[in-house]
Amino acid sequence: MKITVLEGDITEASVDAIVNAANSSLLGGGGVDGAIHMAAGPELLEACREIRRTSHPRGLPAGQAVATAAGALKATWVIHTVGPNRHQGEADPEVLESCFESSLNLAVELGATSVAFPAIGGGVYGWSARDVAEAAHAVIVDGRQRGRWEQIAEVVFVLFNDSMTSVFCQVFDHDQW
């Protein structure tokens, strides 16, 4: 699995699946979530509404993931995951790790070979860049050691600013990917 870290706009990623740092409503919001919904167009919102009508009428719990078609994005799928909100007392790093793990598991189910992640929880949900990078790193290292997600050839972390990108580079730079 190749790991790439870059600063940029995740909506422009040329990958099979883009991971959305969604809120539990799945109906759009600010930050990455809002940008993905805006770029994907109304098809994404309608797909999310269908998920709310059927499998998740109370919203998606933190740490879980669901997928929709990607609408107008270059990607084929959007994988929606909800990070724990530190500002609301959700400070369990295992739930943050579960966001990455659930998303990768779902990517495999979908047949994706490339996945782009934002810094889940690293914006308005209050997790530090280091916490998010270390959670992602722990999940990916553990998965490699267990031979999981072998079909995924590339994971791209598309981050929104230089300081976040710098921390992810530091955390992932110690390994040979």
From TrEMBL:
Keywords: Hydrolase
Tagged with keyword Hydrolase: yes
GO molecular function, one term: O-acetyl-ADP-ribose deacetylase activity
Cited Gene3D superfamilies: Leucine Aminopeptidase, subunit E, domain 1
SUPFAM superfamilies: Macro domain-like
InterPro entries: Macro_dom, Macro_dom-like
SMART domains noted in UniProt: A1pp
EC top class, as a word: hydrolase
Domain Macro: 1-176
Keyword Transmembrane helix listed: no
A Pfam cross-reference name: Macro
Its EC number(s): 3.1.1.106
Protein name per its UniProtKB record: O-acetyl-ADP-ribose deacetylase
